[in-house]
Amino acid sequence: MTEDQFLALCLQQGYDEKILLRLQKALAFAKKILSEKKRLAGDSYYDHNLRVAIILVENNIDPDIIMTGILNGVLEHVSLKEFSSQFDKSIFSLLDGMKSLQSIKSKSPSVEAEAMKRMILTSLQDIRVLFIKLAAKLDNLRTIHVFPSEIQQRISQEVLEIYAPLAYRLGMDKIRILLEDTAFKVINPRKYEEIEGYLAESAEAFEKGINLVIQDITQLCAGKVAITKIKGRKKNVYSIYKKIQKGRNLRDIFDILGIRIIVPEEKDCYIVLGLLHENFEPLEGRLKDYIANPKPNFYRSIHTGLRFPQGRIVEVQIRTEEMDRFADEGFAAHWRYKEMASGEILDKKIAWLKGILELHNDAENKEFLETLKIDIFGDKIYCYTPKGDIKELPAGATLLDFAYSVHEEIGSTAVAGRVNGKFVPLKHFVKFGDVVEVITNKNQRPRRSWLKIVTSPKSKQKIRKSLRVYEKLPPLHYRTFKPEIQEEQGLLVDSEEFPHAICLLAKCCNPLPDQEIIGIITKKKIISTHRHDCRYALQQEHRWVPVYWKKTFNQKIRFYVNAEERSGLLADLLHTIAKTGFEVKEAKAKLLDTVHAQCQFSVIPRDLNHLKDLIIRVEKVQGVMKMYFE
């Protein structure tokens, strides 16, 4: 594309004459300085910068960034005085920041990690420099064929692992798709051609199906709600490949094609959603309201999956024009239109970048790179606090990960939680849309075993940091059993947090093996084990500690059976216990009153499942009312 064609594109995209004059001036200056400077790819730096500028214009980036893209690299060849006489300080500041974003020249993890840290630090000063970095990466991919295969693979992998996800985090979907597909074509050309071939082969059928769906929706909404535009959208090749990687067959992926409905106002989104769900069959689990709960990259839209007539299954996205523009342009849209470009809202937009930098100031370089890839690239789930705040976590995250995402202190003192109102332990896996409440205890401390529970690198980093402090402190004091008492009590429960503490079963709720349980620290420094829904335990959350049923046993377990008094009761119970394979070490019986009896037994179970089988069988014996353990 020539300079004249570039300027014509700018006019077409809505940039005014005043902006065009500034861009013409930048083009002339850069051409004079850079047209004879050659890149490793063989083209000139000026040609590269012009192509970068075209990408920026196509994505409606603001004029200062387009000028910076055109002028990138000129400061190395002209004096500050000469440059300042032609351009203002804001352009100089952006160009100066671009120096930290130069391509990584080394394969060394140490050098690469330092470059990434510099990139994040620079972007915190002005996040717009990342727009140029992404556009430059895309142009580099398009000219990568001149390099040896090994270099092509390394650069393309870097794009897939860091730069395409970075575009996603910035909300720049058009650039993300181009980066993903261009890099994927280099890394796996055979699979790329297979998917691309299927899309081309099915294009006519896809188009016909989408047009019929658009027709159905248009007729349904006519006279009921205003619709600005309805358009079809196709998943990009790399997104389809990721679905295949999860075990899906290419021809069975129903949301390769989708419908995007654009409406004037936010309330219209919900009117359309209601009409669609009333008239077409919604697919279970496919409704996601990102308007009420935006993604952390501030993406907003309603997504739903519907089955249309003739069995067509289509994903439908409903959004306003502003939401649609942001979905395509992301942060760039707000910079161009001067919305939310500074202050508290912008701080929220780049908080995730600040978090990455702060967390990894002390991290090893290799660990930093791996963490960066998970923080930015890994699949995400979104959960909510009871107040409705959204928390982004890596797929496979646990309750403990969630606790650390709220605050380090919450994580360090977490003992259990409630997910959608249900009690769960720290190792419970949270899912998309869960409402999560964390239960803490001021006596709790981070444990080295927690590193096996959490998934998020951020959580692991915080746990390691805390361990360096807590492992230097003396352990909290808890009462422990003497060996002979431990043998007599036959403990069923243990605490990983306090492995030598006394753990007794509470008499108020009499928990049975495999029921959900929680421990409470008593005034005597004993851990009293309760069912998680025990009324007393619910009033003592501030004293909770995690406990668990032992999986294996090597000592006697004592249990009691309360039943209706009858002839042969003890014999029936002994026979039932023997049928489960237990050797009875002790058996006693006594009357509680004229109609009720209590039997006491001691046995040695093989494991927890053996004990569960015993409970099931005993509870079926005629007249048994209650079974509980000591």
Report on this model:
- The relative contact order is 0.05.
- The protein folds into five domains: 193 residues, Hypothetical protein af1432; 136 residues, Beta Polymerase, domain 2 (2-Layer Sandwich), CATH 3.30.460.10; 92 residues, Beta-grasp domain (Ubiquitin-like (UB roll)), CATH 3.10.20; 67 residues, no CATH class; 73 residues, Alpha-Beta Plaits (2-Layer Sandwich).
- It is an alpha+beta fold.
- The protein is elongated, with a radius of gyration of 32 Å.
- About 3% of the residues have low confidence.
- The N and C termini lie far apart (83 Å).
- Strands 1, 2, 3, 4, 5 and 6 form a six-stranded mixed β-sheet that branches. A four-stranded mixed β-sheet has the order 13-15-14-16, with no helix packed on it. Strands 19-20-18-21 form a four-stranded antiparallel β-sheet, covered by helices on one side.
- 47% of the residues lie in helices and 17% in strands.
| Percentage of residues in DSSP E strands | 15-25%
Flag low-confidence runs: 335-345, 481-490
* Share of helix, binned: 40-55%
Task: Please count the beta strands (DSSP E, at least 2 residues each).
Answer: 21
- The best one-word shape is elongated
**Helix/sheet category:** alpha+beta
Q: Characterize the main sheet.
A: 6 strands, mixed
Fourth CATH level, the homologous superfamily of the largest domain: Hypothetical protein af1432
CATH architecture of the largest domain: Orthogonal Bundle
Radius of gyration: 32 Å
Query: Separation of termini?
Result: 83 Å
List the total number of helices.
Answer: 26
Mean pLDDT, to the nearest integer, reads 82
What is the third-level CATH name, the topology of the largest domain? Answer: Hypothetical protein af1432
Tally of discrete structural domains: 5
Q: What quaternary form is this?
A: single chain
CATH top level class name of the largest domain: Mainly Alpha
